[in-house]
Amino acid sequence: MSAVAAADVLESVGRFEHGQVVFDTPPTLPEGARLRIRIMVETARPKREWPKDFFERTAGQADPSLERPPQGEYEVREPLS
Description:
Layout: E1 14-17, E2 20-23, H1 54-58
Antiparallel strand pairs: 1-2
């Protein structure tokens, strides 16, 4: 990551641990740089995605003898109104 110039806006996801804000990807700043920091607190939602190699590990793994039994006849009901 390149060094930050004056008036750059940085956005990073972090977490609060032991009384300190820890950034997942800390910015590269010159040593002793004076900063004005604004913190906006939003609840971060975890990514909802398939685990790595999920399909490779699960495709074709079902028991081939597994068979769906007959489902019977469709039930005819009286109308509600």
